[in-house]
Structures are given as C-alpha cells and as structure tokens.
Amino acid sequence: MNLETLFVREKKEFNKLIGIASDTFYIENRLPKQVFREQFNYFLFEEFDWAMDKDFWSIIQQLSKETKDDYVLAAVLDPNPVEYFYKEFNYYNWMKLPVNLSPDEYLDVLELGPEESPADAVLYNSYTVIWLPPSMKWAIWGERSYGVCILGFQDVNNSADLLPILKNWRSIDETVLSWVGLNFVNQQLPQEIANTLFLNYSNGVK
Hints:
Layout: H1 11-24, E1 42-47, H2 54-66, E2 71-78, H3 81-89, E3 94-98, H4 103-110, E4 128-132, E5 138-143, E6 148-153, H5 174-181, H6 191-201
Antiparallel strand pairs: 1-6, 2-3, 2-4, 4-5, 5-6
Helix pairs in contact: 2-4
C-alpha cells in the first residue's frame, strides 16, 4: 500500500472531516478543560506515547471491528493543520487509516513526514491528536503536553462489549494523575488542574 495516499490533500475533504471532528470535540479546548462534546460521557485514559505504538493500533482495530468502522481518522490539531502544515507542505497532517492497516504500517505512516521535512512526521511533531471513526461511537483525544490519551464513549451501556478490549485503560485515578504530573515542574501536578480533570472526566459523577 502506498501510505502517502492515506493523507488528506483536498480542502473540500478536510473541511468535511473537521466538521465531523467539531461535532465530536471542542477542538479549540485543551486539557484540563472538557474536550469532548456532551454526548460523550464515559472516559478511559492511557499514556500518550503508547498511542504512537503498534499495540495501540491493535486496540483501534478491535474497537473498529466491534463498531463496524472501516477506517479511523487520525488527525493532528497541534501543530495547526491549516496555518502551519498545509501552508508549508500543501497537504494536511490528517490521515484516513483503513482498519486493515497492519500495526507495522500504522507506525510507518506516523513516521512518514514531508519529503523536505521528515521531522514534521506525526510521530515527531504532534502535540494534540485525535482518533475518530465514522460511527462516532467512540473517540480518542491525545495531548502530548499532558502525557495522556482519553477515550470517550457515547453510551457505555451500549459499549459493554468494548470494555474487555480496554483492560489496560483506566478511569481517572491517582495513577492517571501521576502520568500527567510527570509533565509539570518538579513532576507535581497543581491541585487545581487535578480537580478540573476529575470534574470533567470522572465517570458517573457530573
């Protein structure tokens, strides 16, 4: 497979996809604010770096199989896909990844940067990333500066079949906060940020 064909290149398609992303996320928000729209109400966490790994793609494949999705949008929000990436390279740092992509190919496409600037590959130059299937039954927000990815479900009661796939993902707890804390001065998470994360992402407590 020519992995370059997986990148979004047409403005019309990008505008359609960013509309779908905006129906899922508050794409202007950043953690610790709530980044998911109201229909998402159950959240699980993993470490950000793991999302840039082959094992993560295996989980995506299993989720997609359960929700009958044939591709997943992997899209970078920071650096800006229009004002930076498209302006510099004439295509977007957004990818439509078929779920039959192998884990090795997933890693390869993350490493595939512009010919004139390999350091701008998603693997290296991505600070806020989303993963979103067309069914929108689940979605993932990743933020490198907080060291975490958040998986949101629209309806956990209808997603019970998905939870066994996610045995390594955690509801927000002290372990999750410790992952976030590693990214702060003296590896200490300010209490105000911890409180805001709990307020926005605790399951069943709103």
